[in-house]
Structures are given as structure tokens and as C-alpha cells.
Amino acid sequence: MSRRLPTSPLVLILGATALWLQACAGAQSPSDTFQRDLDAYHAHLRWGRFDEAANYLAEDEREEFLGALEQRGEGYQITDFEVKSVTVTEPNKEAQVVVWIQSYRLPSTSMRAETTVETWTWDDQFNAWQITDLEKR
Description:
The protein is built from four helices and four strands. The chain is of the alpha+beta class.
């Protein structure tokens, strides 16, 4: 007994419509993706996935970022963070994000807090947000 897949015109139209909608959803604007990218970057930091977090930095910032983390050593752990403010300096092109980060480095159990200003810039070439500047306050 062989089973046939339904081939009615309605099924074909629904399938084609679903594929078309999926394709349209792939081309998102900068405003659609900013919060998602911001949240993903900070989640990677919080859970110690520094290599994944580095992917959100522009190439010229990436080495410095990973080098600074390497200097902090194996026991470096971010325990908490809070986005204090987001200032859009140029709509759909650039934003400044002020972030408070709490961390420690083993074997010390003392918490350390620092504030960082991240400059996020939309890159038309890669169709993605990137951190183009990190500045400690």
C-alpha cells in the first residue's frame, strides 16, 4: 500500500505562501534586530560564552576584547548586568548603550562593578549590528 501526499491546489498554494512568508521574515530591518542582538550579546557575556559574544564586535575591536578577557584569567565570571540606558544617536544606524556589569575573578570572592559604554553601529555590508567601540567609565 503506497501513501500519496496531498497535491490539491490549496495545499500547494499554502505551502508556497509559507515559504514566501519565511523568506520575507529573513530580511529584517535594523530596528527589528537591534534588541535581539543586544540581548544575545549580553546573554553570551553573562554565561561566559566570550567567543560567541566576540562575534558581535567589529573585527578591529574583537582582538582587543578577547585579549582583555584573557588577561582577566580563567576564573573570570560575570554574575550580573543591567542595561542602564540606550541612546539612539542616529536612527537605524547607531546607538550608545550604557551597561553596568558585576563580576568576580577566582580565587577572590569580592565582587567588582564597572560601567561600559558600547557603541552599536548598523553595518549595511553584513546586514547586522556590531559593537564598534567599547569604553569603560
